[in-house]
Amino acid sequence: MNKVFTINPETDFVLERNIDAPVHLVWEALTKPEHLKQWYMPRDWGSVSACEMDLRPGGAFSIDITTADGQSFPNLGCVVEVIPLERLVWTSMLFPGFRPAVFDDIPITAIMTLQPAGKATRYVFTALHRSPSDFRQNKESGWQEGTAIAMAQFVAHVESLK
Fold this sequence. Notes:
Radius of gyration: 15 Å
Order of helices and strands: EHHEEEEEEEEHH
């Protein structure tokens, strides 16, 4: 795998898991809206009310969240890279078509990699932030905790597909 960045612990968040499922099931759960709706949002916090994934560079990566108290939060980003069964990269710093985004939230670039590990899959989620300040704000907002919960839900969902 060609690594195009170096992890900076002051700006980057990394979660790694071994998932007891083949790569094709992990990829399916990661890239199909009907699966993503099952695991993306911590269940006690809310749900995914709409999802669109146009898996090509410049395509839309859109996830609308509805919180437990009924508030709705649209999240629109742009797919940057797709290597089926291996790597998916999207960013909230761009809108579809690589248009510069306008946002009032903390932007991230999310990199998800999959690697066969025997009959299992090594899955790595990395979120790149613009600055240590953005990363700190995200941690304080509960984003990091929510991402860890979503990762646990993702692993359980994938393993239920076997």
